[in-house]
Write a structure and sequence with these properties.
Layout: H1 9-22, H2 30-49, H3 57-68, H4 76-79, H5 82-89, H6 97-107, H7 111-114
Helix pairs in contact: 1-2
Organism: Halopseudomonas salina
Protein name: Transcriptional regulator
Length: about 120
């Protein structure tokens, strides 16, 4: 095992290439150990240099509206009266847990995309 730190994107590419060779290694082998170390190094590098932005629940709702051709009126069954829908879409009201559950079940918006909008 010749694993080294990942310091740049070239190192990252090399780590991915090596990972392809050891990915299916049997547990308990040196290759399996190398795979675990490579995965940890790759994750650390990517989290530092390519962080994932947290989801914006309003953007997720508007994206689903656009995909499905929905109007704010269509959201009333999930969010409540038109005034409340307007407040949510304009960022003046946070989503409640009940709204999140209804949006997830009715429009299949992932919970992860809606959770940063939970009212305290």
């Amino acid at each position: 095992m010749n694993v080294k730190p990942i310091r740049n994107d070239d190192d990252l590419t090399a780590a991915f290439q090596r990972l392809e060779h050891v990915f299916q290694a049997e547990e308990g082998t040196p290759e399996a150990d190398e795979m675990e170390v490579l995965v940890t190094l790759i994750e650390a590098y990517e989290n530092k240099h390519y962080p994932i932005q947290s989801a914006d629940p309003i953007a997720a709702i508007k994206f689903r509206m656009d995909q499905d051709g929905l109007t704010p009126r269509d959201l009333e069954q999930f969010i409540g009266p038109s005034g409340r829908v307007s407040e949510v879409l304009n960022g003046n009201r946070s989503l409640s847990v009940r709204m999140i559950k209804r949006l997830h079940e009715g429009l299949h918006i992932p919970y992860e995309s809606l959770m940063s909008g939970v009212a305290a």
